């Protein structure tokens, strides 16, 4: 399971729910816990999210807690800072509210196919077409971003393993340079693939049209 959550096929109430309903529910829950900022609301929201995972989506607690295991350094540092500067209650509220929002958002990706999410984002961007926005291009950009994340994470892992094998795990250059080169190469390959399918940027397309008119 990736950090953003991968779709898990189930027959459940949340899997069958419309995407707009899930978005509204997550937005309402997140806004409520952040605005009220009360310990009882944070506890209630954690309970609601847990029930949504186990009963509403029929997902295991392992799938629910997996992303938190990857976030624990950030949670630990943030919680410790809040304890020192504002007290234990403030630390619980800050960390607890972040956990609620993250788990609620991940529930969307765990119960919705990626193409449905992208279609929803494209539909959401359509009202901005009168401002010059291109909803389809926006959806393509998000899709490329989501596909790039595991590639870059894998590249970082390979660089770390290679550096460790050569005894250079503490050398920043041995860790960063291969990832940078791999990212540039991946971007170039992606750009060439898009250009081969006629999906270059809008400016290039207009420039080509202007040159054709001139000729």
Automatic annotation (TrEMBL):
It is found in: Membrane. GO terms for cellular component: plasma membrane. It is a multi-pass membrane protein. Keywords: Membrane, Transmembrane, Transmembrane helix. Signal peptide: none annotated. Its main location: membrane. The chain crosses the membrane at residues 12-32, 38-56, 90-110. The keyword Membrane applies. The keyword Cell membrane does not apply. CDD domains: EcfT. This is Biotin transport system permease protein.
């Amino acid at each position: 399971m990736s950090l953003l959550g991968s779709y898990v096929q189930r027959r459940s109430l949340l899997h069958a729910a419309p995407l707009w309903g899930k978005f509204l529910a997550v937005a309402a829950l997140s806004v409520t816990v952040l605005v009220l900022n009360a310990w009882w609301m944070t506890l209630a929201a954690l309970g609601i999210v847990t029930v949504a995972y186990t009963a509403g989506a029929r997902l295991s607690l392992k799938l629910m807690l997996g992303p938190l295991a990857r976030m624990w350094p950030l949670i630990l540092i943030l919680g410790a800072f809040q304890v020192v500067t504002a007290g234990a209650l403030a630390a619980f509220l800050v960390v607890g509210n972040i956990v609620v929002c993250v788990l609620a958002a991940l529930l969307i990706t765990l119960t919705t196919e990626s193409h449905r999410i992208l279609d929803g984002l494209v539909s959401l961007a359509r009202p901005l077409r009168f401002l010059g926005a291109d909803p389809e291009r926006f959806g393509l950009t998000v899709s490329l971003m989501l596909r790039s994340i595991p590639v870059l994470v894998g590249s970082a892992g390979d660089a770390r393993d290679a550096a460790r094998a050569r005894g250079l795990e503490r050398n920043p250059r041995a860790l960063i340079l291969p990832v940078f080169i791999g990212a540039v190469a991946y971007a170039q390959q992606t750009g060439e693939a898009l250009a081969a399918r006629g999906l270059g940027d809008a400016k290039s397309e207009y420039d080509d049209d202007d040159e054709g008119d001139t000729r």
